[in-house]
Amino acid sequence: MKEITGGITAAKGFKAASCEAGIKYKDRTDMALIYSTVPCVCAGTFTSNVVKAACVQWDKKIVESGNAMQAVVINSGIANACTGKEGFDACEAVAKAVEKSLGVDHTSVGVASTGVIGMQLPVDKITLGVSKMSESLDESIEAGTAASKAIMTTDTVNKEIAVTFDIDGKEITLGGMSKGSGMIHPNMCTMLAFLSTDLNIEKSLLQEAVKDVVADTFNMITVDGDTSTNDTLLCMANGIAGNDCISIKDNNYETFKEALSYVCTYLAKRMASDGEGATKLFEAKVINAKSKADARTLSRAIVGSNLSKAAIYGCDANFGRFLCAMGYSGAIFDQNDVELFFESVNGKIEVFHMGTPLDFDEDKALQIMKADAVTVLVNMHEGNESATAWGCDLTYDYVKINADYRS
Fold first, then answer.
1. What parts of the sequence cross the membrane (predicted)?
2. Are 59 and 44 in contact (CB under 8 A)?
């Protein structure tokens, strides 16, 4: 597997476009269109929030129906959530605008939105945006990058990646882009993620691969404990690479899953480090746990604790906060089996050993925690399972950003 320059347009047959529709922002692009020259098998995962945006329900219907997907329209600024029948009508209008412009059946058009909840989409602006973008679709790297920027809200950087790998002598490409900065908490988060590949694979196996990989990537990040109404991940595979169709869980399937995990891990970590107001990536790695479920629960509890996040921001090696979060996580363990370390590019230090606090070097710990990425490593000494979760520190700016988000 090789990481290459590019994103959503890296795979053969995929194009993208973006435009300024004036939905909420007045000085930047706020719409993107992803298009495949041929219909794709599609897999997806969606928010666990009971309150689901109209666009989420629209996309779920396409994915669960088994129908092909050939295009996705994304807007930022307004979420189209809690919008009643008018919100569903807006989804249909956007999809039919693509049908009119590109000749793609509207039932194979995904829609995704991110932004303020409870506001109706300006359908006229969005359908006009679809018309503009349909005329400017491009397979270039630059078009993909521009699309990744158009879907940002409070993100400070765009997020995209692409890789190539070999299956049966055919070069396969997998690209992706995502957005997410706040209202991020498992399972899924205020995140939109779109993956494109020219791989030939059966839909059921694509869905299974996506579901498995999401469990250890996007579902292991948290910024603020809020699970969004709009979380959507769509993976489109158009088969243009020409490999024999992957229809069983063989070595080719595992090769694809490895690439999928690499791409999703990269995007997930980029989202966690770009949390609203964040200054650090905060990683929790739990090893030698009794079960995979325990490892996931413990690591997510550590990065999800506001007190832990504040300690990371303050470079305070207050290990009690991390142990406390583990203790209320719901996982059962013996604190006398636990070792806890802090580590970063600046070094590694153990601060808690088998139930006993250590007299550690505070200055060394401070230097370790001053790094841009800090890991809390916990050895449970109770089994062979492990998991890693990602989050960010909690800063004053998080409150500033969210205090006046609507206005």
1. none
2. yes
Name residues whose C-beta falls within 8 Å of residue 85's C-beta, 6 or more positions apart in sequence. none
The reply to whether 60 sits in an annotated binding site is no
Place of tokens 């604190």: 335
Q: What is the pTM of this model?
A: 0.84
Would the annotation count 407 as a binding residue? yes
Task: Mark whether 190 is an active-site residue.
Answer: yes
Final residue before a domain boundary, out of 233, 249, 272: 272
3-state DSSP of 162-185: EEEEEECCEEEEEEEEEECCCCCC
Average pLDDT over residues 70-98: 95
Nearest residue to 304 via CA among 398, 377, 226 = 226
Residue 180 tokens, joined: 């997410």
Q: Radius of gyration over alpha carbons of the chain, in Å?
A: 22
Distance between CA atoms of residues 58 and 323, nearest Å:
42
Say if residue 257 is in the same domain as residue 288: no
CA distance 400 to 365: 29
Mean pLDDT of the chain: 91
Closest CA to 271 of 208, 191, 325: 191
Tell me what the mean pLDDT of segment 74-84 comes to. Answer: 91
Query: Looking at residue 183, what is its pLDDT?
Result: 44
Residue 155 sits in which domain range?
2-272
321 and 221 inside one domain: no
Q: How many domains does the chain have?
A: 2
Q: Annotated binding residue at 402?
A: yes
β-strands 373-379, 281-289 pairing: parallel
148 assigned to a ligand binding site: no
β-bridge mates for residue 17, sequence order: 33
Phi, psi of 399, deg, nearest 5? -65, -40
Residue 16 vs residues 11, 34, 80, 304, 383: alpha-carbon distances, Å:
11, 5, 22, 35, 47
Q: What angle do CA 406, 156, 388 make, to 5 degrees?
A: 105
What is the phi/psi pair of residue 184, to 5°?
A: -120, 120
Catalytic residue among 9, 190, 297, 388: 190
